[in-house]
Amino acid sequence: MSDLEGFGFVMPHWLYWGWLAVMPLIMMALDRRAATREKGEAISPGSDNAHSEDADSTAPPPGNGLTRVLDWISERSGVFVAFWTVNAVCFYFFEVVMRYLFNMPTIWVHEASFLLLGMQYLLAGGFALLHGAHVRVDVIYNLLPKRGRVGMDIFTSMFFFIFAIALVGTSWIFFENAYAMSETTVETWGIQYWPVKGMMLLGAVLILMAGVSKLIKDVQLYIRMGREDVQ
Questions:
Q1: Is the pLDDT score of 15 beyond 90?
Q2: Does residue 206 contact residue 199 with C-beta atoms inside 8 Å?
Q3: SS3 string of 147-174?
Q4: What residue segments make up the domains of the chain, in order of their start?
């Protein structure tokens, strides 16, 4: 990094990618530990906080072993990339301090942050689909009965899969080309760009997996509701 001398601290590329891989795992472990401690303090043997299942419990939610695995992956991947937001806050705080207190603006903070948030947007697609956070046109959808809405979801899933499969294929081509040419960004920092294309591919696969899980659960729910209507 001799060509970057005189710019002050410049985050090494290996440190950037390594930190993004390790930092969320640390935060998730700490969060799990804190949640376990709080749960242990809130529920003690014989306390009134212990919940019993109702005798007239509703039917279990639709799904099977495959959907539970896919949903777990979607959930944890969403939580993983959510912690990246903390890095963007820290990066820009560092930039403000260096720029306005030491008159030494950085050459890497802005690029590091927008790459981070771009990858975060791509990887959170499966998590958003799992929680129904994607945009949907509800003009006709809201006029349908509950079973009709599930049927509409099943019907429109074919358009989703056309998009998702095309996204996976296109992302693979982007990633393969970027990796073959060792593509880097055009800014002075010059960080590798192929990992970003790789995250695009991974995000496409995650949203495809979430879509498979949703379709399975929708079909099961549609069949169950049909049987309930007959009864």
A1: yes
A2: no
A3: HHHHHHHHHHHHHHHHHHHHHHHHHHHH
A4: 65-226
Q: What is the per-residue pLDDT for 140?
A: 82
Q: Give the ranges where 83-193 is alpha helix by DSSP (H).
A: 84-100, 109-123, 125-130, 146-180
Return the structure tokens found at 210. 């979430």
Helix runs in 43-83, H state only: 65-82
Kindly report the number of other CB atoms within 10 A of residue 187's CB atom.
11
For 42-73, what is each residue's pLDDT tens digit? Answer: 765 555 554 444 434 467 788 899 999 999 99
What span, in angstroms and rounded, lies between the C-alpha atoms of 101 and 96?
8
| Closest C-alpha to 200, from 218, 188, 183 | 183
Q: What is the pLDDT of residues 64-122, one digit of tens each?
A: 999 999 999 999 999 999 999 999 999 999 999 999 998 888 999 999 999 999 999 88
- Coil, strand, or helix at residue 184? strand
Quote the CA–CA distance of 90 and 102 in Å, as a whole number: 17
Whose CA is closest to 115, among 189, 56, 63, 170?
189
| pTM of this structure | 0.85
CA angle 149, 154, 155 (to 5 degrees): 95
Q: How big is the chain by its Cα radius of gyration, in Å? A: 23
